[in-house]
Amino acid sequence: NLKVERLERKLQAIDGKGYKAYKEIQGSYDGKGFTLHIDYVQGDPFASPSRIRVVVNPLSKPFKAEWLEAAWRRTALEDFLAREVGQAIRTKQPAAKRDGGTGSSGLIWIDAPGQEVLMRTAVVARLEQVEVRLSVGLPAAGRRILGKQAAGLLCRVVPDIVLQAMSGFSWEVLQEHLRTADRQQAIREYLKRERCVAFVANGAILPRESGVSNRPLSRGNVVPFQAPPSMERSIPLPDGTTITGMAVPEGVTLIVGGGYHGKSTLLQAIERGVYNHLPGDGREYVITDESACKIRAEDGRRVEKVDITPFISNLPFGKDTNRFTTEDASGSTSQAANIMEALEMKTRCLLIDEDTSATNFLVRDARMQRLVGKEKEPITPFIDRVRELYDRHGVSTIIVLGGSGDYFDAADRVIMMDEYSPRDVTEEALAIARELDSRRQMERGEGFTAPTERYPLPDSFDAAAGKKEKISAKGLSAILIGRSQVDLSNVEQLADPSQTRAIADMLRILFRRSFSKGEGLREAIDRLYEQVAGEGLDVISPFRGQHPGDLALPRKHELAAAVNRMRTLRVK
Ligand code: ADP
Ligand code: MG
């Protein structure tokens, strides 16, 4: 490697030249206690910023081996460091005070995490060194290089920010971050061991600031969560203490209650409990089975050869529901497909909210059964499958319902939200069910068969992307493959735009590598995740060995959801 002083001289030499001359600075440079890698130089001031990495070596205080051993701890450590760098950048460079140059001139940026603690590429920690992945806007006035500013930015400001962040953080705060991850892991293990699907700790703050913010609600009267006594459990934690809250056992659980009493807020917290959250989030001890899938109606989505017969058969004009394909699913067919696809990915828990469900998919009451005979109704409503899903297939359901008591017959547990406080009303609901017969007929039809693996065809991807592999993420909820858009706006458990970028990279791998070897959807995804677990998230990037891009690991379920929503998907 060259010395940073060489970089400084190069930058001074190109001062005032046209922007293209920046290309010369690509390369690696050693400074005092760090190495700077300039991996990608932007083509002009308005293009996406340049990609650099700063490796700090040696660390002023090496990390402890025990922080890096377990996967959840390593993720928490790297997450913490990325937040620290983000904080250091904000302190050094308040948003309004960049260098005043053109485009992204003077920008320093790291893909700092949000409320979730996810495996991400922003920071890679080892015992003795840390690698930080950043983006910078190379300084320019118009299209002219500002060489002196660039020298200051790359040779001093950026290394200082990173070095300070790596030596200046509080070990106490870091240890608390790691202890939180340990507790979250202990709760996850407890849920598995004790056959529960979700846990909500007493004192948890569930509501969010607003519909577009993921931060805890702090204005006005917030009601902290308090478990109903009959569902309360204390879970032992690694530090010898316990944590107390509501455990939701496997089976069928209803969340009922009046409008605006906090039903959806509770379910949303449970949906997000598949991820760990940072201390202070309010939901850091809301933990859900990692495989739990939110299921909603999603009319207009495409569906490719999904067996939806457990829910829908005998469509008009004899349309096939064994291998149901449509360019434009209805509310009920989309919800059925979403369930079958979640089952294909081996979910152990379905999360459903009546607010985002098709009514005719959830229930058909006695009067409607009388008027419209079974032979005229293609839908077997979810109410007639929900027990069988658990009893025969081990798949639990948590469902929010304000409008239909017909579900009481199928429930193991009924939780009522009453002014944001949960009450266990199971006994009352079962007594009511005995007293007031719903008069419904069970519409079981044939037994429920679990979905079989589907085999995507590799040219599904070429059909959109062409040979040039044009694929890119657009924010949180869209991926563009060539000119074909994959709409993920109804994939509600996708949490971070960096997950969407990772999905884009993973789609390329699945279609270019796995599916062309004839692997099935779940098999291919399992294999890819094994590789990520073994080698790190960088393996999914086309820029391995360099700045891999700003990526965070999605769940397998969201990756599968993206495959399933490709307009060009074809399966064998
Ligand atoms: P429901 O689904 O029962 O109609 P929501 O869950 O949508 O009700 O909640 C209604 C409103 O109450 C939302 O604005 C939400 O932010 C707020 N809210 C939910 N839980 C709490 C709570 N524990 N404390 C204060 N406000 C809450
Ligand atoms: Mg609601």
Question: What does this molecule look like?
Answer:
This protein has 572 residues and is of the alpha+beta class. The chain folds into three domains: 2-169, no CATH class; 293-435, no CATH class; 459-564, no CATH class. The strands form eight sheets. Strands 1, 2, 3, 4, 5, 7 and 8 form a seven-stranded mixed beta sheet that branches. The chain is globular. It starts with a strand and ends in an 8-residue tail after the last helix. The structure holds adenosine-5'-diphosphate and magnesium ion (MG). Magnesium ion is lined by residues 263-264, 355.
Topology:
Layout: E1 2-3, H1 4-13, E2 27-31, E3 34-40, E4 50-56, H2 65-69, H3 71-92, E5 108-109, E6 116-117, E7 123-125, E8 130-136, E9 140-141, E10 144-145, H4 147-168, H5 171-193, E11 196-201, E12 208-210, E13 213-216, E14 232-236, E15 242-249, E16 252-257, H6 263-272, E17 276-277, E18 286-288, E19 293-295, E20 303-306, E21 324-326, H7 331-344, E22 349-353, H8 359-362, H9 366-371, H10 386-393, E23 396-400, E24 413-418, E25 421-424, H11 426-435, H12 459-465, E26 471-474, E27 478-481, E28 484-487, H13 497-514, H14 521-535, H15 556-564
Parallel strand pairs: 1-2, 16-23, 16-24, 19-22, 22-23
Antiparallel strand pairs: 2-3, 3-4, 4-8, 5-8, 6-17, 7-8, 9-10, 11-15, 11-18, 12-13, 14-15, 20-21, 24-25, 26-27, 27-28
The chain binds adenosine-5'-diphosphate and magnesium ion.
Magnesium ion is lined by residues 263-264, 355.
